[in-house]
Known about the structure:
Blueprint: E1 8-13, H1 17-20, H2 26-30, E2 36-41, H3 43-47, E3 59-61, H4 65-73, E4 80-84, H5 93-101, E5 105-110, H6 128-145, E6 154-158, H7 170-176, E7 178-182, H8 185-192, E8 203-207, H9 227-245, E9 248-252, E10 271-272, H10 276-282, E11 285-288, H11 294-300, E12 304-308, H12 310-315, H13 317-329, E13 333-336, H14 352-363, H15 374-384
Parallel strand pairs: 1-2, 1-4, 2-3, 4-5, 5-6, 6-7, 8-9, 8-11, 9-10, 11-12, 12-13
Helix pairs in contact: 4-5
Amino acid sequence: MEYTRYNQIIYLSSLPLRNLSKDFYVHELKNIKGLDVQFWNLTEVLFSLKTNDEKNLFEKNIGNHTQFKNAVKLQNNEKTLYITSIAFEYRSLLLYYFLKKYNCKTLFFARGALPQYKRINKLNNINFDRIIIFFKNRIAFLFKYLNVVNTFNYLLISGLDGYKTIGVGSGIDLKKSKKYYINSVDKEIYDDANYELALDNNILVFIDEYMPFHPDFKLLNINTVPESEYYNELNLFFSNIEKKLKMQVVICAHPKAEKYKTKNYFDNRKIYFNKTCEIVKTSRGVISHNSTAVNFAVLSKKPIIFITSGLIKRFNPVLDKQILLHSKNLNSNCIDIDNYQQENLIFWKINEVFYKSWKRKYLTYNVNQNKVKTIEILKEIVSKGA
């Protein structure tokens, strides 16, 4: 395939490359002869936090809006496609203003949507910071409505709710942008996985979220939980459920769980790295807080127990609400591991109506028909501007 429409790809990201290379096909495009690929990390611009992840020649850390503006100005923007997953809102408004100013073409990955807990503020408990954010986002909406910033040229949308990741004014983008309907990353991983692992299928899988140590929590202003208390209560719960159900609990580590490689925090239970899809497929059921990897349980039609605790409620009450919301959306059991009855330690039979609804909303636009790989759609756009 000859890449005549665009000969340069620039990824714009709010997170370092290590978080996103697989999700957005960075290395697949990087390996195409004649196509220049760059990755611009805008963490510092958006969150005022420094990162030191510039490890490859094609990675660049952008420190402020002026650096971004000057970098964009230097490109041959007629032949450059900017690929992003940065939602349009007040914090990214100036970035998108510069992209319009220099006639840049943009592609947005509208996927990764999940059920979102919405705070309801009572009149006697008004959060003024949130009111300010609301009005800032109204201004951002007006900028898009009045065409001060452009809509995205291309949208790659996964699931009926994928458009919600676009950000402010998503309805305008849906009307004006060229749309392609794709599978989620997890759906593509599930379709391509190797299921020949020789495992005992009498296992339950805990999908780890690395809650005491997750490196992105600081970026996202999320509280971590105390290490000792968290793992102690988890291990006690796992012991109880193993005794009750006569099954072994194994751990699927979070991709960033580096500490697990030198220390086992789970009372020597087996820990698997980078095999979540395969292990879930083999298992009898899944235990989770609200990891996105429950997508593999949905695709594999495995029952799920969602778990919260007093510790989570104390340090991250929004996460507690989010866990409950996920369980309701899948009609699955939700347990407070500090306060439960032994008879509640059961995996309900899955509700196929709820599971199918989840797939349609978040994993694939059409459950039966999305067969084309996202990378092939990307290549077509880069080649022809299709």
